Amino acid sequence: MLTIANQTFHSRLFLGTGKFSSRQVMADAVKASGTELVTMALKRVDVHASDDDILAPLLECGVNLLPNTSGARTAEEAIFAAQLAREALGTSFLKLEIHPDPRYLMPDPIETLKAAEELVKQGFHVLPYIHADPVICKRLEDVGCAAVMPLASPIGSNLGLRTKDFIQIIIEGSNVPVVVDAGIGSPSDAAEAMEMGADAVLVNTAIAVAGNPVVMADAFRMAVTAGRMAYESGLGGRQLKAEASSPLTAFLES
Amino acid sequence: MLTIANQTFHSRLFLGTGKFSSRQVMADAVKASGTELVTMALKRVDVHASDDDILAPLLECGVNLLPNTSGARTAEEAIFAAQLAREALGTSFLKLEIHPDPRYLMPDPIETLKAAEELVKQGFHVLPYIHADPVICKRLEDVGCAAVMPLASPIGSNLGLRTKDFIQIIIEGSNVPVVVDAGIGSPSDAAEAMEMGADAVLVNTAIAVAGNPVVMADAFRMAVTAGRMAYESGLGGRQLKAEASSPLTAFLES
Amino acid sequence: MLTIANQTFHSRLFLGTGKFSSRQVMADAVKASGTELVTMALKRVDVHASDDDILAPLLECGVNLLPNTSGARTAEEAIFAAQLAREALGTSFLKLEIHPDPRYLMPDPIETLKAAEELVKQGFHVLPYIHADPVICKRLEDVGCAAVMPLASPIGSNLGLRTKDFIQIIIEGSNVPVVVDAGIGSPSDAAEAMEMGADAVLVNTAIAVAGNPVVMADAFRMAVTAGRMAYESGLGGRQLKAEASSPLTAFLES
Amino acid sequence: MLTIANQTFHSRLFLGTGKFSSRQVMADAVKASGTELVTMALKRVDVHASDDDILAPLLECGVNLLPNTSGARTAEEAIFAAQLAREALGTSFLKLEIHPDPRYLMPDPIETLKAAEELVKQGFHVLPYIHADPVICKRLEDVGCAAVMPLASPIGSNLGLRTKDFIQIIIEGSNVPVVVDAGIGSPSDAAEAMEMGADAVLVNTAIAVAGNPVVMADAFRMAVTAGRMAYESGLGGRQLKAEASSPLTAFLES
């Protein structure tokens, strides 16, 4: 079981809530995925309406909320958004996202570390979205982040584990959970991250824009479980030389 | 549901039976995998003993048998082995394997086509193990093979889908089921093959040599299902440019 | 120096002549590439005209001709084309190409082996274009081919060394020169093939469709030389763990 | 021609000086490479000896020196080392390297930005070694760095362009030269970086540990030139569908 801050999770699949064609599809996908943690941008939630159309179905599903600071370009903006989110949603969990560049939405390591340090002091459970950079991941851990969320490839690209070599180094060295975020494009990508020893993955676009998002969410659920089981049961090594699964003794000669 | 020759399959995971540490582990892995088709070298079966220690547990599991001609180096040897197998095991299903080179166990396209043509005439349901070569796959289909089994990477290498570009072309062009065989090293590899539209995968080494083969078999079961569901529900495209899952409108300014 | 059949070559870059925007550009690219062997489809040569507009500039460059059987779909067609080519061009060198499928132009191993066997008997120096299949390469060597030409990726795709793992096996096992053909999309692809130990590469599309084919031909010339030199001088191994190029002793403390 | 700060370079290959088996081999490799800029750790130079055995041969070659701060773990240490280097070697060029982790020698983005800002103020021409992180590269440019040096893969790993997708984004967005550093393992890797539009590459281990470092240096020289020429002359696109280089019209029927 996965523990982040004071919370335990049976499911190692986290979901994003953007890009779904309707609230109903989103809620059905959330259910099918088995997720216990969903992230959403503060802006998307009408924090004053008791019948907010995105929050209500999520709360019905019984999932935990992970508000994010998507859209923030500086530490200051992110901290302000985080405070609003905690007040509105009553949770100290926070996905910290700071991306000054609108084109590839890459995280800013300087602003992210600065905001993380402050938010931890303010009692947040901070999960920063960050480049797959082993050094900054370590520094985020050192200032008290509850987990790190290195990116697999650019947000929404569906390109999969392009940062594989560095994710491996991050996993090796991390004392907090490693949640692979952004760019996971298919169940096989998610399984691969889990096989490497990631603690969880966060998926959004690949499910939301699938032909059938609900079936895709179910597929991701199974793939994440499969990947974790494979990691735990011990994958064999890779090698170029073939080894026969079947015996090679020339049976016809016997 | 998958149909090969006159047989339908709910499971799209086929298993090999080599390299397991014991018969019991093998039988338990077969059950956990949910497979309905297992392959074994003729040599490994004592066809005269009613209590053969590999056959008995498999038959108890209720799986179909796919005898293979592993060890054959020529069409002639393979045809002889096939006939023995049919007589001994009472099945016309045959995995045709002809690999003259003991080092990498690569299939011989010339001998394989020759043997396939003859075996089809003799009433076998032939599933040939073959290089991921679109032209030879088409020719094997043309002489009446029930499926084609292109290799992902060298047998036992666990290297995964190194022939991906060619498997894609084979799937596009094939009128018989495409079963990806050899080199599948992890559940994510299996899921990836299924996401590309393969009809099934055959796995052996990655399960047999896993730390816990039974859990690994279960993981492959889920990964194959997940990959198939993803294929059917429609994966999104891949692109370098990022697209925000969460809206980018600068919410703090509103 | 590379020897194929009775001929030695200083340059390990072979060129195709298709797709160039003009004869002049082709001739200039041939010169800039330093190649000593160019291939052309028989059809493109007017064998009766003494002033054929493709042959003349090539012969002026002093390069050897390697007529190919592009367009042939069977062994029979290829053999007929080969005979015409020898008669018209006065060379026994032949690039044997048989591809029944017009979409991906993949070589047919069965027809290619059959034609190769016959053409060798007729005294041709046969260089077959073939899938990167180690077994069929070995069989082509066994029937007397002067070299083998495994494909890197589909013709004209510019996708580079997608068959790398298998090319490596082919190089390990071959007693005749291995010329990597088809799909080489950039000088780095060509260098990579040479670094692996390929004896030569054949390039066409990547040069012919470049913005500046003459400069690109020169770039390929250097890349092939560089790759060969790297192979001969011994590349270091690859490993994930870092090793400092500069010493790590904390120099500031001394 | 490449310009960094106030200096122009004909060669786009920079060299490191670590790991060579002898001073003579290093000097010969430097000459063979055609480089005009070599980097060395301050520690390795005896700044008080007029006949220092590493400096003398380099100065004889007429190359520019790029002292680096290898071994520094903080901005403070790096700044101190930079000042020593400038005083000792009489150059304001500086390769800024700060890597707190001895295992993979990954650069620290926080300390690097802090040091860069200060060193630029002190009049240095700063070339920071940094993760292939587009945001931090942009910030380093913004504080006045003369170039950015994103890593291809871990130092000394010879793994090549594992950060390719991100290097591409960095090149697209950068207004200062992009010098790909660390992990370049072969001439083909160097050519590939140049084909993508990198302004230069820095190579050390792959040359220093080669079987024949001098020949390898020459090979890198050609590969870098080839890659740059390919970039400038315009590479063709990549696509899966084949396109015949030779015409497909069935010439035998005419």
TrEMBL record, chains A, B, C, D:
It catalyses: [ThiS sulfur-carrier protein]-C-terminal-Gly-aminoethanethioate + 2-iminoacetate + 1-deoxy-D-xylulose 5-phosphate = [ThiS sulfur-carrier protein]-C-terminal Gly-Gly + 2-[(2R,5Z)-2-carboxy-4-methylthiazol-5(2H)-ylidene]ethyl phosphate + 2 H2O + H(+). Gene3D superfamilies: Aldolase class I. Its EC number is 2.8.1.10. GO terms for biological process: thiamine diphosphate biosynthetic process. Pathway: Cofactor biosynthesis; thiamine diphosphate biosynthesis. The keyword Transferase applies. HAMAP family: ThiG. InterPro entries: Aldolase_TIM, Thiazole_synthase_ThiG, ThiG. Belongs to the ThiG family. Catalyzes the rearrangement of 1-deoxy-D-xylulose 5-phosphate (DXP) to produce the thiazole phosphate moiety of thiamine. Sulfur is provided by the thiocarboxylate moiety of the carrier protein ThiS. In vitro, sulfur can be provided by H(2)S. Homotetramer. Forms heterodimers with either ThiH or ThiS. The active site is at 95 (schiff-base intermediate with dxp). It is an enzyme of class 2 (transferase). This is Thiazole synthase. 1-deoxy-D-xylulose 5-phosphate binds at residues 156, 182-183, 204-205. Residues 3-247 form the Thiazole synthase ThiG domain. GO terms for molecular function: thiazole synthase activity. CDD domains: ThiG (cd04728). It is found in: Cytoplasm. Keywords: Cytoplasm, Schiff base, Thiamine biosynthesis, Transferase. It holds the Pfam family ThiG. Its main location: cytoplasm. GO terms for cellular component: cytoplasm.
